[in-house]
Design brief:
Chain A has 256 residues and is mainly α. The first copy, chain A, contains eleven helices and two strands. The radius of gyration of chain A is 22 Å and the shape is elongated. The first copy, chain A, binds a DNA duplex (30 and 30 nucleotides) through helix 3.
DNA sequence: GGACAGCTACTGGTCAGACCAGTAGAACTT
DNA sequence: AAGTTCTACTGGTCTGACCAGTAGCTGTCC
């Protein structure tokens, strides 16, 4: 449960401006790319001091809603939603935790398996084309080594997430992929190129693409789980692997 | 892909303080409940103006890392991680979107099913006791009406999430539950008490508890999906329901 | 007419200082 | 020991100054 402080009697000066701007963005009155009034105009508009306006700007920037540049006379620009706030929360929760890698992998498996299922249900022909192209880029990247291949692999997953048509899933999955990448990029580079694993990954992703094309949501979801486990499972200490394995094997077709 | 601005040549005055404080929290040097130095001491420590210090404080507050109170001579307090940043992102992404309810339900099903699976793998005896107590509170709340029952139901899910031992899953699930609650609380209250549905929900949760007690991860995961679909599925327009249904039916035991 | 350089009137970034409402904790009283 | 008062701080807000940076206008050259 989130901790609660006593309800404020009246809002602080900067909060009034934050709420106003957030409301205008949420209602679509301010769109991505639009500019806010300059700081001195907001001073006049809200009848507050310029430092209160600047405090509000810092909050909106921190939340990924706007960006400003020194000297730009056009005012701060409204941004599209980003994974940055979630990245920050993930960092806060997993930093230096002994089980952080397995929990990040669990989180990623959770999100990507649903993204795959949704992509199978909601995908368009244009999505399929983008998936084809992304897979082709993986084949090219395979010849360039592990680092390029990892990047192309992340791109493929992102295209799948876009095909899911679920922005929140997409941004969440992006955030956790970036966190995992940062945590283990050194380890992956140390392990050197593993061409066989890259080849199997491409085959897996081809299967995912086929399942999405065939609108087979269950197969797409299952493949996300087994693929992630095969690619990353060896990085998890054996005693921590049970939970990840349980998730990976959920919905497996019966053996035989 | 998050948009990128040109790399800054040097950090802004407030950013130096934000980074310093974040690093000290991440390394454990500053713990939850600890106090930061007061603003005027940070001015001296960092050699910057007090308005720059205050801008840094606004950023740290906005990210849920600290809280301050007017007049408190002890300085800002370090908070435990909260769902607030994710709540804000969810609001940004789903506000006034026509498909926001189904996407929120999908997100919640995604997270809670994994939380159930993890809880089955990682739960302790203390967790089981807390789950027993949470279910008992649901039985009591049933007699008090739908609003009390909904709250007790949310509490039960949160106890399950705690038993998962996965803070990120727990906070994410909490954020999406709160968002759904806010979106449909009026609708639920309008529909009046449905004692039969409340009774079935309790039965479902008893099955979840049994599956967690039996360490049956797959059953626990499956029950989260089917239960959410049964409880909320009717609120989703038929044409949007396919994706949710596909997720709900993943991993279903064969009929018969 | 287009490219380029220079200029200007702004912008955001940072700071110092002032003042006020609010708080913790010490001192005092009962 | 409990309650009240007082004080020296705190955070909240504001004003004004100054500076580096930018967009866009103007003038020149080809």
């Amino acid at each position: 449960m989130s901790q609660s402080s006593p309800a404020p009697v009246k809002p602080r000066a900067f909060e009034t401006i934050v709420r106003h701007v957030e409301a205008r963005v949420l209602t679509g009155e301010l769109k991505i790319g639009d500019r806010l009034p300059g700081e001195r105009e907001l001073v006049t508009q809200f009848g507050v001091g310029r430092s209160s306006v600047r405090e509000a700007m810092r909050v909106l920037e921190s939340n990924g809603m706007i960006a400003s540049r020194p000297g730009d006379p056009r005012g701060a620009v409204v941004l599209s939603p980003t994974a940055a706030p979630l990245r920050r929360l993930i960092t806060r929760l997993t930093h230096s935790s002994a089980s952080s890698l397995v929990d990040l992998l669990i989180y990623r498996m959770t999100l990507e398996s649903s993204a795959n299922s949704l992509a199978a249900t909601r995908r368009s022909e244009a999505d399929l084309l983008r998936l084809d192209e992304a897979l082709e880029r993986m084949r090219v990247a395979r010849l360039q080594g592990q680092a390029a291949f990892s990047q192309a692999d992340l791109d493929f997953h992102d295209v799948v997430a876009q095909a899911s048509g679920h922005a929140l899933l997409q941004l969440s999955a992006e955030a956790v992929r970036q966190s995992i990448e940062q945590l283990i990029s050194a380890r992956i580079e140390e392990s050197g190129d593993d061409d066989e694993l890259m080849q199997r990954t491409i085959e897996h992703h081809q299967e995912v693409l086929t399942a999405i094309r065939d609108r087979d949501a269950h197969l797409a979801e299952h493949l996300a789980r087994s693929s992630l486990f095969e690619y990353y499972g060896h990085l998890v200490p054996v005693q921590q692997r049970e939970a990840l394995a349980a998730l990976a094997s959920f919905g497996s077709p019966p053996a035989g």
